Amino acid sequence: MLSKFLITRFVKDYPNTEDNKVRESYGYLGGIVGIITNFILFCVKLLVGMTVNSIAVTADAFNNLSDTISSIITIVGFKLASKPADKEHPFGHGRIEYISGLIVSFMVMYVGVEFTKSSFDKILHPTGISFKLIPFVLILLSIIVKIWLSSFNKYVGKAINSSALQASSLDALTDVISSSSVALALLLSNWIDFPIDGYIGVFVSLFILYSGFSLVKETIGPLLGEAPDSELIGKIESRVLNYNYVVGVHDLIVHNYGPGRIMASIHAEVPADSDIVDVHEVIDKIEREISKELNLFLVIHIDPLNQNCEKLSKAKKELSSILSLFPEVISFHDFRVVGDGDVKTLIFDIVTKANNKRSNIELLSNNIAKEVKKIHPQYETLITVDIDYK
């Protein structure tokens, strides 16, 4: 397998993908292979397009040139993203990799716009194209090369979890489709007189635009703060629950500062009557081991849980019964009762789905408070609403 050969040949200590230097080497290799491959394809297709007078082939050639520039930007992005943290950027520069991917996406869209114009001009002012065997074969060979390049970028991108290289893989795959359309236009020119070259050129250009738009969506998500991977959430929660003293978890928050630069915080419920020193040692151990295992920085907040208070248990059961009337409430936690005598305040968090609007959330809190008042008119409620984005 050529992809694996290149990696083993040019990436030192290639199995250790968690190491930032190894990851950087993967990125450089992906970028250099992309530059060489796409520039060769650009030269070949430009020569073919000029030889057979085909706007579709020429459009496809300049699409490969933009891919060459994209590979250069990818390399620069990996270089800048690998810079260590500093005073202005205490969490590192990892998000630059996403920014470089966004620049590449806009470049792809720009090429699509320009060649949509050229293709329409070809339809309005058609010129004949002639089928020649050698250019046709060269286009077919370029399709094979692009299939391999897409596979290579996907392999490397998956190995180091790089959205930029995975986007490059998708971009190469769209080139396969566009080049196939160009080859079809050349072949059909033997039997069709009307300017099919221009129409297929429009199709290719619109496909490039669609690909660019898709890449923008994929790369802008991490910059805006997209929801974390549900698999990662499940791993963090299940692993924390596996340790002594931890009887429940909630309020998991994950911050992504770039590939391999993830920070997470979570609340761990522990019995209130546990030895605080022992609990602290266990929590420290959890933070160290899970941070190392999942390649992130984990911080745990301790929530003491009173499991032996009869009055608290009764109040909690009453609240659970009330919340069962509201199907939009998934669960509740951090339940406490404060105050003296008959006048008390129930403090708790509820978890609801992300599709609830702010007005609906406020109405939900008010309705829960009303139901509590029906049972205990003297009770007040302090409700915090957590959103479940899973």
TrEMBL record:
The segment(s) forming the Cation efflux protein transmembrane domain are 32-223
Give the bilayer topology: Multi-pass membrane protein
Gene Ontology CC entries for this record: membrane
Superkingdom of source: Bacteria
* Keyword Cell inner membrane attributed: no
**One of the Pfam families matching this protein, by short name:** Cation_efflux
Q: Which residues form the Cation efflux protein cytoplasmic domain?
A: 228-304
Places the protein is found: Membrane
Q: Which UniProt keywords apply?
A: Membrane, Transmembrane, Transmembrane helix, Transport
Residue ranges the record marks as coiled coil: none
Reply yes or no: does the keyword Disulfide bond apply. Answer: no
Q: Which GO terms describe its molecular function?
A: monoatomic cation transmembrane transporter activity
Enumerate the transmembrane spans: 26-48, 96-113, 133-149, 198-216
Q: Which NCBIfam families match?
A: CDF (TIGR01297)
Q: Which family does it belong to?
A: Belongs to the cation diffusion facilitator (CDF) transporter (TC 2.A.4) family.
Q: What is this protein called?
A: Cation diffusion facilitator family transporter
Identify the species of origin. Clostridium grantii DSM 8605
